[in-house]
TrEMBL record:
Pfam families: Glyco_hydro_28. This is galacturonan 1,4-alpha-galacturonidase. The keyword Signal applies. Specific in hydrolyzing the terminal glycosidic bond of polygalacturonic acid and oligogalacturonates. It is an enzyme of class 3 (hydrolase). It is found in: Secreted.
Amino acid sequence: MRPQSGLSRDDMRTVFGALLAAVAAVLVSAGELPRGSYSKTCTLKPLGAGRDDTDQIEAAIAKCGHYGMTVFEPGQYNVTRKMTWDLVGSRVDMHGYLSFVPDIDYWLNASNTYRVVFIQNQASWFVVTGHDFVIDAHSSGGINGNGQPWWSHFHTVTREDGDGRPIAFTLKNVTRALVKDFRIESQPFWCNTVADSSEVVYDGMYCNATNQDPLYAGKNAVPNTDGINTYRSDKISLYNWDITCGDDCLAIKGNSTNIFAKHITCRGGNGIAFGSLGQYVDLPDIVDNVVLEDLKMIRLDPQVQPNMANGVYFKTWTGTVNSSPPTGGGGGGGHVSNVVTKGVSLDNVTVPVHVYQTNGGHSADAPSTLQFSNLSFIDWTGTSQRSTLVDIECSSGAPCPWMRFENFNVAPPVGTTATVKCVNVVSESGLPGCSTITTA
Ligand SMILES: *[C@@H]1O[C@H](CO)[C@@H](O)[C@H](O)[C@H]1NC(C)=O
Ligand SMILES: *[C@@H]1O[C@H](CO)[C@@H](O)[C@H](O)[C@H]1NC(C)=O
Ligand SMILES: *[C@@H]1O[C@H](CO)[C@@H](O)[C@H](O)[C@H]1NC(C)=O
Ligand SMILES: *[C@@H]1O[C@H](CO)[C@@H](O)[C@H](O)[C@H]1NC(C)=O
Ligand SMILES: *[C@@H]1O[C@H](CO)[C@@H](O)[C@H](O)[C@H]1NC(C)=O
Ligand SMILES: *[C@@H]1O[C@H](CO)[C@@H](O)[C@H](O)[C@H]1NC(C)=O
Ligand SMILES: *[C@@H]1O[C@H](CO)[C@@H](O)[C@H](O)[C@H]1NC(C)=O
């Protein structure tokens, strides 16, 4: 392992079996060819104010994206239309930012973005595909999403899932890749998505959606600015993330397996989500083997971002189909099992641990059949805004076995007594007051 990977031996030891091999393979095979060994190098400089950089970027990637090296010198690169990079056996060094023009009407026209992420029919303006590559932005480059005009716009215009607001950075159909020290400034919508991919390591990711318009002070002015959504992907590792957002810091969606995250800071928003799941009646969602370690939830000044809703939460739709995705849905099955959350520190979060299976539902709906089992909560500290520290409400259609708590030391508000709520929990350990049921 070369030191440039940024992972210490100790970090590596804590990675569980399957991922250890995956991470090592990526860092060695994709990661670190000596720079001289690429067959060609393309170097870019921003053209400057009023000019469009999209052509020169596409030309460089077409020439050097396979078995070559592409270097972006510092500055802002003006991107005016959708762009795909296909990277194979190559390296991209970004010392500057791809700055996507905030032309909202243009991007909301569906023909001007890609619809490559199936879940909720989301739009992407920048897609990377391929295998065995490195994108290193040296903490001095990445993407400028120019989000403020978008956030302000959608205070007067209704927003919906699937309405075409673009994901800032999409990895789609990627195998063995490393994204390193990448910055995304003011994402208009989701910051990252990884879909239909495997063996991807993100080491160093910064996303910051912070409203600067005084008109919206005190409100969550940056909805749906999730740090990442993982979907239909295997062996994805997230190290050293610093996410400021108004929604899910990380969202583990359907068919995410062998996911490892470590050193994650979430500033504001909803915390870390599993879900939503079970939205598509004909597509079971399977989430298995997820380890999340060293997580920090930080509440921001409520004038800047009023929400810090959860530590970690799990949500499914009900068992009834209520209209169709992207905005409606439900009735989907599947399971979430073998999740470990370890070393979590909370700063005044509203509900530290929450499980519910009634997303988007009505009271008469059939219970969800999506099964949660073996969720572990180890070494939790910090403070909760309410006295209910744990609220696990599993579906009567799929009661939850093996809920495990160890060193769960979150403090309720001063002067209150901590309570926990457990509904349809089959078995638990380490959580006094959690009532369990027996199943037939
Ligand atoms: C980006 O390019 C467009 C099209 O040429 C131009 O109108 C616009 O001024 C450029 N933006 C910046 C920030 O340079
Ligand atoms: C959407 O963009 C396409 C391609 O640029 C264009 O032909 C079409 O007229 C646009 N639609 C609207 C409603 O602007
Ligand atoms: C995914 O990528 C592989 C090679 O990297 C390619 O052969 C395949 O066609 C791609 N699949 C899709 C659905 O784009
Ligand atoms: C996020 O951006 C805001 C506005 O520019 C800034 O005040 C804040 O310090 C940034 N947060 C981080 C963690 O860099
Ligand atoms: C998840 O994987 C299972 C098994 O391969 C498949 O049946 C299901 O359709 C997949 N679900 C999604 C959301 O892709
Ligand atoms: C629970 O999950 C842990 C971690 O993935 C795993 O080691 C253990 O075998 C699982 N236990 C059961 C009963 O499935
Ligand atoms: C927790 O956050 C709420 C909402 O921002 C605030 O009113 C309250 O004073 C905070 N409590 C502590 C102990 O910081």
